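Hi W.,

Here's what went into the run:
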Amino acid sequence: MMLAYIIRRLLQSVVVIIGVTLLSFLTLHLAGDPTYLYVSERASEEEIIQARQRLGFDRPLPVQYFSYLGGVLTGNFGNSLRARQPAMELVLERLPATLELTIFAMAISTLVAIPIGIVAAINRGTPLDGGIMLFAMFGQSIPSFWLGIMLILAVGLGLRALPISGHVPFLEPLFSGNFQLAASNAPETLRYLIMPSITVGVFSLSRNARLVRSAMLEVLSQEYVTTARSKGLGERVVIVRHALRNALIPIVTMIGLEFGFLLSGVVVAETVFSWPGVGRLVFNAITQRDIPVVQASVILFSFLFVGLNLIIDIIYVQLDPRIRLR
Amino acid sequence: MFARVRWILLVTLLVLLTATLGVSAQTTPDENTLVIGQSVDVGSLEPSLVGSRAESNIFGHLYGTLYDIQSDGTLAPFLANSYTISEDGTEWTFTLNEGLTCHDGEALTAEDVVYTFQRAANPENAFTGNTVGFVFPSVGFVDARAESDLEVTIITDRAQSEPLRLGLLSEVYLHCKDYYESLTLEEAAENPVGSGPYRFVEWVRDDYVLIEKVDPEAPGFSRIVWRVIPEASTRVAELIAGNVDIVANVPPDQVAAVDASGVATVQAVQGTRRMYVGFQFSEAFADSPGWEAIQNTDVRVALQYAIDVPTICSTLLGTECTRASSMVNPPNDNPNLVPYPYDPALAEQLLDEAGYPRGENGVRFEMVLMGPRGRYLNDANVVQAIGQYLTDIGVQTTVEILDWSSDYLPRVREKNVGPMFFLGTGGSTWSALYDMADLSAPDAGTNYTNWQNAEWFELWDATAGATPEAERELINQMLEVFYNDPPWLLLYFQPDFYGVSNRIEWQARRDEQVIVTEAALRP
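Here's what came out:
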C-alpha cells in the first residue's frame, strides 16, 4: 500500500517538475534575447549573430527546450553560460550553504513557534497572549530585507556581537567526509548563521506561532480534553499528551510547505548577509539569464520540495492513525 | 516535562553565547592582508572570459599585459618594454622584457604571447569575454607571430590611432602556453596561472577570492582578499566595522555616515562613464510622440539648455560635477567646447524659433523618456528629474522606468529604445577615440541612437593612419560636429564613491579599476 502510494506520488512529481522547467524556460525567454548578455556592448551585428548561433539561441524555442529536456533525462543539465562549468555542479556546490540557512531558520521558526503558540493559547485573553500575538503580527509585517539591515546595524555594527556578513561552511565539509573540519567550524558557522536565520525565519515563526495558538485553542475546547481534565490529569499532561499531539497535524502540513517558502525566501538573506548559497546563484543567473543554471536550480528545488512533502504525508500516518494513504 | 524544556532552552542559549565568543573568519584585514568588498563575484577564472569590472579588478593583479594603463591615463611598459609599427600600420611588434615567468615557473616568451592571442581568438573555445568580444574586433585582430623569443608581432587588418590600439592591446591578459595547453577549458576556468604581480590562492564561489604577492620585496600587501558583498549597506557596515579596507559604490546617502565613522572616509572621483540621454533617430519610432520633433537639430540643441545638470549631481548623486561638453572624457575632449548651461528661458525661446510653441494647454509636444532602474547611480531618480525639467519647458514627458537586465538592456542592444532614453557607456582616460568609438560607424553596435551624420563618419574614417597632430585636429572637428548636431543630451561623467579605511593609503582611479598594487598601511 505504502510503496504503491510512493510510486504514484513520484510519477506525479515528474509531471510537476517537467511543468516547472517549461514555465521557467518560457519566462526567461520571453524577457528578451539572452545573446546580448554574452557579447561586448561594442559587438557588431555579425558578432551578435555568431554568438547567437554558438550559444544555440537561434533555434526555435521548442527545439531549445526539448534539447534541454533530453539532456536532463541523460543527466546533462548543460554548462553555465557564464562560468563554463556544469550547471548542476554549481548548484550543488552552493546547496550546503543554503541548507544550513534553511534548516536553521526552520528550526528557529518551529522550535520557538510551538512553545510560544502553546503559551499564548493557554493564556488566552491575557496580556501575555496579547504580547505574543503582537510580536507575531510584527514578525509577519516587517520586510525581511529591512530586518536584515537592522540586525546588521544593531547587532553586528552596534554591539559587535555577531559577524556582519559572510559564511563559514559546516555541511559542505560534513558531506565531503571532513568531519574534523566540520566540527571545528561548527561554532563559527553558528555565529554566522544567527542573523541570517532570524531574517529568513521570523515570518514563518510568527505565522507558525499564530497557527499553533489557534490549533491549540480548537483542540483545548474538544470534549476529550474536558474528559481528560475531569479524570484529574494534570494540566501539563493534558496539554502535551492530549492536546498538542492533535494540534500538530496542521502544523506539520505547514512545515512541509514552509521549506519551499524558506528556500524562496533565502535570496534576500543571502544577498544582505553575503551568504554564498543557491538563492543568490539563482537570482544572479536570472538577471544574467544564465538559463542552464536557472533550470538546474529549479529542478533541484522542485525535487526537494516534492520530496519533502511526500515525507510529510508519510509522517501524517504516524501522527494520526485515522489517516490512510490512497 | 516543562523542566526538561527549560533545560533545553538554557543549553541552547549557552551554545549561542559561546558561539558569539568565537574567533572571526579568515578573511579579515591585518597588517599583511588587504580586504576589498565588491558587489559581484567573478563568473570564471578564465582570462579570456573576463567581461566585467569586478573580474578585471582581480585579473589585473593576476595577469600581466603588454603595456599598462596608468591611473592618469598614460600607457606605460609592463611585460613589454617597447614596440614598433609597420609602415602600413597593420603590424605591431612588441619587445618583451627578459626573464619573464608565469607563476608556475614556466618562462613567458613571445611564443606564449602568440598562444595567448590565438587561444582567445580560437572559435572552438567560444570565448565571449572582453578580449575576443571587444578588443579583437576593435583593433581588427588577424593573428600573432613570434619573431624571436622576445619579439612578438600582432597582425591586424587596419591602421589605427596609436594610443587607442596600445590601450586596447593592454587589456589582453598574457599567460603561458604549456600550462594552459595541458588543461581542459573547464579546468582552466578554475585554476588560473598568471603572469602578474599576484598569484591565485583560493576562490570560494560567491564568497571570496584570495591572491598573494609573488615577489615579497615588491610594494603592496602580501595577501589581497576580494570579498563578495552584494548589498551596498552591508559593504558599508563591514567597512565601518573595520572588516573591509576598500568598498566600491558607496551609496551617496551613506557617504556622511562613513566619513563620520572615524574608521574610513569616502573618496568621490569623477568616473569615465558618460551619462547621457539619447535621441532616437530610427524611423521605427516615427509613430512615437515627440520623435518628429527631435529629428530637428534646433530642438535637440534647445533641450540641452533645459536640464540643470549641476543640481542633479549635487542633489541626486551626492557630489558636485561638471557637465559634459562632449562624449569624450577630459582632458582628451575639445577644450574649445563649453558645456551647455542651464537656461530654461533660452530653451523655450529656441523651441519657439524651431516651430514648437506652447499650445493652449502649455504643451509644445509630448515625449516618452525611457530609463533603467538599478544599473547606474540613482538612475531612476535622475530620469524622473530629467523628465520634469523637460515638462517644465513644455515638452510633456512621460517617464518609463524599466528593469535593467530583463527589459532595458535587451531593448538598448536591439536599438529599440526611445524616442529619448537614458544611458551610460564606459569611457577611458587614455584615448579620445576610445570614447568616440561608440559612433565608429553608422551601423556600429553602440550607435544606439542610429545617428547618421555623414560628416562625423567621414572624419572618423580619416583618423585611420593620421599623424598624432592631424588626429587631434580631426577629433576636435568631430566633437564640434557632435556638439552642434547632438545625438545625445549631454549630462555628466558618473561619479564613483569608494569607501577607504583610514588604516591604508590608496587613491581611487577614475576608470572604475580597483588596482591596489601600491596600497600600503598608513605610517
